[in-house]
Each structure stands twice: as structure tokens, then as C-alpha cells.
Specification:
Mean pLDDT: 75
Shape: rod-shaped
Radius of gyration: 45 Å
Low-confidence stretches: 35-40, 54-67, 359-366
Structural class: alpha+beta
Order of helices and strands: HHEHHEEEEEEEEHHHEHH
Strand content: 15-25%
Number of strands: 10
Largest sheet: 4 strands, antiparallel
Distance between the termini: 115 Å
Length: 366
């Protein structure tokens, strides 16, 4: 089939091919049967490539993030990771320094018979090299302590970390800063927070932590101690605002569940401090109390709730006892009671049981 034959036929040719006269199109009779034109074969269309789905923001928390508290921790620098810095055993530096001093002394001893120090140019160069080597060897000696590490930098660039203990040699040309990597604990000052019902609280948090990545702890943030304190306050405010301090009406979850609150606070704080090289092992609220301005009102409300709960428990036990007594009397045929007598008996038994427990008000005992 040629390219001309592939083209669709004009309208008049289509009607002629279908055997329909053109005059039938202009008839005014609405009852005339409608003629349907034959459908033309449609050429196949090329399939469009599937469009890639646009990136979506992550809505589910990561496994290390607290459930119900979606967060986006600060990004970390993948290039700033702790690695071993250039260091050598201290005894090797001492041996090298003593050897250099011995060589320099041998050169001077050689020129002693002349009463004046007269050395050849190459001897002067060797003497200067020995002295410089001795200064470099003894100048880089330092002491590595257990529970601390040296962070090395040269011209503002991170060169590595040294966690060795004892006598260590580190190049005196690099800048050394000591970081404490021991397991540490910190107790916060009373933090002002608000629970889910709007009641003002004061909470004290105990945090157990340590520096895991010395490079990030010293170079990724201005002061990792201040960063930890600020994050503890922010995490406490965020976690403690999810639940009420006390459930006065029901037995729902409250902030008094220290284990659950501490686990959520630990996960949240660990996710926030991981980019700066701090490992948080535990963050537990040691004291949760109402603020002084609302403490008296909340104390009265708590006493009223406890009293109401106690009265409800006593009332339930009294009703069960009355029901059991009346059922036994009537089921065994000891008494025959109509509705009025049953109501009077129930009332008398209720008053008697309440009076025995001492929970009936003075006005109701008479």
C-alpha cells in the first residue's frame, strides 16, 4: 500500500463508499433512521514512556526514630568521619631523639682537639639535621590518657584522631585538641514544659552519653556540650507534650510511666545527637512535678479524683454485697418480698454496709 492509499478518504468519498447519498444528510425528518458511518482504522500510536514519579517526602519514621514523633534530624557530613591519625609509639621517638643527640655529640667531639669548633660544611649540615631531628622527636612526645583522645588538624583540615594511651609521639606541626570519650552523665536543671492538657510542669532529665565520633563532636558543631543541653530541653518539651501528667478520669497512658517516656525521649535524643558524634544511651526523667503556680490546684484535683475513685470502688462492693444478700434470701425461700419490701430491704442493707465501712456521710447515717 502506497503512502497515498494510507491517507484517510475525504468525507464525500466516505459517504459514497458506504452507499449513502449526500442528500440524506440534509433531510429534516427526525424520525428517519440514523445511518452510522463505518469507523476508519486508526494507526497504532507509539507508547509513551512512563513518567518517573516525583520524589515524595518520607512520612514514616526510621527504625531508630520514636514512633508517633516524625522528625527530620540534622544532616551529617559524610566526609567528616573519625579516622586514625598519624602517631607513633613514644619509645621509638625517644630512641630516635637520643640517637640524633649522640650523632651531634660525636661531631662536636671530633672537632674538640682543635680547641675551636671547626667543621666542614657537610658536617655543619649533618649537625643541624641531628639537632632538628632531636627537637622534632622530643617535641612531639605527649601522654595519651585512658578515656580521652587527641583530635589533630593542620591548617584547619582534619588529619585524624589518636586514641592511644601511654607515651605517644604526635607531630608537633599539627594542632592537638583533647576530647573526653568516657561514659558521662549529666543531670539537667528543672525544665519548664507543658503536658497535653496545658498544665505547667517542671521536669529533670538524667542523660547518659559519650562521644562516639571525636571528629564530628569537635568540628561539626561549635560546642557539643551546649548542643547536647539544648537538645535535651527541646526533646523534653516535645515528648512530654504528647501525654497528660495525670489521668484523673480514666486509666489512659500518662507521663507517670517513666519507662515508656524515657524510651521515647532516648530515641528522639539519640537521633538528634548522632550527626554530631554523640551517642546517647539513656535519657530518663528523674522528677516530673507541677509548676509552683498550679501545684496546689492540681493537688486538690488529684485528691478529689482519688476520693471519687475510692467511693466508686466502695459503692461497687456494697452493691455486689446487697445483691448477693437479697438473692440468697429470696432464692432459699426465707422471705417473701414484694416490690415495696424489696426496695426497703435494699435501702436498709445499703445504709448498713456503708455505715460499717465508715464511708457514709454524717447526714445520711440517720
Amino acid at each position: 500500500m502506497t503512502e497515498r492509499q494510507k491517507r484517510p478518504l475525504p468525507v464525500r468519498a466516505r459517504f459514497h463508499a458506504a452507499g449513502i447519498p449526500m442528500d440524506d444528510l440534509f433531510r429534516a425528518d427526525p424520525a428517519a433512521p440514523t445511518t452510522t458511518l463505518p469507523a476508519l482504522p486508526q494507526p497504532p500510536r507509539p507508547a509513551r514512556p512512563a513518567r518517573p514519579e516525583p520524589p515524595r517526602w518520607r512520612t514514616r519514621p526510621a527504625p531508630d526514630e520514636p514512633q508517633g514523633l516524625p522528625l527530620r534530624p540534622p544532616p551529617d557530613d559524610p566526609d567528616l568521619v573519625e579516622r586514625n591519625g598519624p602517631a607513633a609509639p613514644g619509645w621509638l621517638a625517644v630512641l630516635l631523639g637520643l640517637t640524633a643527640l649522640g650523632a651531634a655529640g660525636a661531631l662536636l667531639w671530633r672537632a674538640r682537639p682543635l680547641r675551636t669548633i671547626h667543621l666542614e660544611p657537610w658536617e655543619w649540615a649533618a649537625f643541624g639535621g641531628c639537632v632538628a631531628l632531636a627537637v622534632l622527636a622530643f617535641g612531639g612526645l605527649t601522654r595519651g590518657r585512658t578515656g580521652s583522645a587527641w583530635v589533630l588538624s593542620l591548617f584547619g583540615r582534619y588529619r585524624g584522631s589518636v586514641r592511644r594511651t601511654g607515651l605517644v609521639w604526635i607531630s608537633p606541626l599539627v594542632l592537638r585538641r583533647r576530647v573526653d570519650v568516657r561514659l558521662r552523665h549529666w543531670r539537667s536543671e528543672p525544665i519548664a514544659v507543658v503536658d497535653s492538657e496545658g498544665a505547667a510542669l517542671r521536669v529533670v532529665v538524667l542523660v547518659v552519653w559519650s562521644v562516639k565520633d571525636t571528629a564530628r563532636a569537635l568540628l561539626a558543631v561549635d560546642d557539643h556540650l551546649d548542643y547536647l543541653r539544648e537538645q535535651v530541653e527541646a526533646a523534653a518539651v516535645r515528648v512530654l507534650s504528647q501525654l497528660p501528667a495525670d489521668a484523673f478520669r480514666d486509666d489512659g497512658p500518662t507521663l507517670r510511666d517513666a519507662e515508656s517516656v524515657g524510651a521515647t525521649l532516648t530515641r528522639l535524643l539519640a537521633a538528634e545527637c548522632r550527626p554530631v558524634g554523640i551517642a546517647v544511651f539513656s535519657a530518663q526523667p528523674t522528677r516530673i512535678e507541677y509548676a509552683p503556680e498550679v501545684a496546689a490546684a492540681m493537688h486538690r484535683r488529684q485528691i478529689a479524683a482519688l476520693d471519687a475513685r475510692h467511693r466508686d470502688t466502695v459503692l461497687t462492693s456494697v452493691i455486689d454485697a446487697v445483691d448477693d444478700t437479697v438473692t440468697r434470701l429470696t432464692s432459699r425461700g426465707l422471705v417473701e418480698l414484694d416490690d415495696f419490701e424489696r426496695q426497703a430491704l435494699v435501702k436498709d442493707l445499703t445504709v448498713a454496709f456503708y455505715t460499717r465501712r465508715g464511708d457514709l456521710p454524717e447526714g445520711d447515717r440517720q
